[in-house]
TrEMBL record:
It comes from Hypocryptadius cinnamomeus. It comes from the Eukaryota. Residues 17-245 form the Thioesterase domain. Belongs to the thioesterase family. This is oleoyl-[acyl-carrier-protein] hydrolase. Its EC number is 3.1.2.14. It holds the Pfam family Thioesterase. PANTHER family: S-ACYL FATTY ACID SYNTHASE THIOESTERASE, MEDIUM CHAIN, THIOESTERASE. One of its GO terms (biological process) is monocarboxylic acid metabolic process. GO terms for molecular function: fatty acyl-[ACP] hydrolase activity. Gene3D superfamilies: alpha/beta hydrolase.
Amino acid sequence: MEKLVACVQKKPDAVCRLICFPWAGGGTSQLAEWGRLFNDSIEVFCIRLPGRETRLEEPFAKDMTSVVNEITSVLLKELKEKPFAFFGHSFGTYMSFAVALHLKEKYGLEPVHLFMSAAHSPNSAAYLAVKSIVLPDGSNDLLAIMEILGGNFELPHNEEVWRDMVLTFREDAKLFQTFSFEKTEMNTPFSCDVTYFCGSDDKIYDAKGWRELTSGDTSFYELPGDHLYLLKPSNESFLIKHITRSIEN
């Protein structure tokens, strides 16, 4: 559990767990800290993929299926134990969707709420277009690689940070391209509510398709900022309050 999940504040009496899935090239340092910001009713888990942080020595995951299987097998007991919600940002949105789909299809488990951020809905033409982009060969071409999953945000000036970011970002982009989803006419995978967030200065994402993926309510919020709008303290505060209210209601 400790290998896969970062939990900075355990809350055994929490009524719900919020499982957070970080963006491409990212780790757990930002979203895991949300555990200190939510009240005692919500415990925060943040997913840590191989190839980063305490899993730096492990090889990067090769496909989305292996990621989904690891997350599901490690967390199944906890997910059966009490209600849970998912928050995914950018690449994390697709990862959380893949896990939610697997849990519903194989175990009949469903999040009480899906909070999705800065990503195309997986049943949109834009999503398919991004999936088919050919990754550039040059390891320094971060801008082209970011076209796969990134958006508009400031790039690091430190060369070592840049190099590590390129490598991890590239591997996450390859991982993303191994996930496939096709919605059939009669298939509405979820019944939970879906809330979608994005930054006002980020690139445009096709998010309206979420309405077709659940029989629950869908809502959309644009917050000031770029692709990493959620790191701004005012936006973070809005997200914490909104997610808490949505879960407690």
